[in-house]
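SAMPLE LOG
Freezer: B-3
Tube label: C17
Construct: single chain, 219 aa
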Amino acid sequence: MKTAITFLKCNQGFFKTIDLINASSTDYIHVDVIDGLFAANKTFIDQKMFQYLKESPKPKDVHLMTLHLKKYIDVYSNLNPFSITYQFEATTNHQETIDYIKSKNCKVGIAISPLTDLEELMPYLNQIDLVLVMTIIPGYGGQKCIPETKERVEKLDQIRKEKRYTYLISVDGGINDKTIAYFKNAQLDIAVSGTYIVNSDSFDKQIESLKKNQSGTFS
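STRUCTURE (predicted):
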């Protein structure tokens, strides 16, 4: 299992937190973008912060919790991200959105809220690179992970094997050393974690605990 770190609620300040993420063993910087329309919360990234992210060596994993998706895809594709993931609930024009992200030479991810029927995602699974299973209601950091979302991970893995699809499966929301155990031994590719890591004294220690508690192996 790989990890991605989100800085949505960091106590150490943006620039120091990004430096610590880059110095850590994590695989991705998870860039949450919230516009205040799709969700009441709103993120702030100014030009200096944007440039700092762009120059950061870790691959960027962009998660758009926004309306007006094309506008945000245009902006955040300039980070040269590993992937751009959009919220399924933010649009009904999925084919257009998938094609538009691909036109930016980015891998395509779809995030799905716990309140959305997983069946609605089925027509698009053969076209995307990542499914982000939201384990909280999207838009706010610090929420508690919903244990029942493990069933979604298991279902997506079953479909992936049966259909021979190649998408990655990721989880995001309230992920820490306790809640990652909900997904113990599940075929999980990426775990996104925020406050559990960025407000700790040792990013690598927290990352290692996530991996151990998910795999069920302990030293």
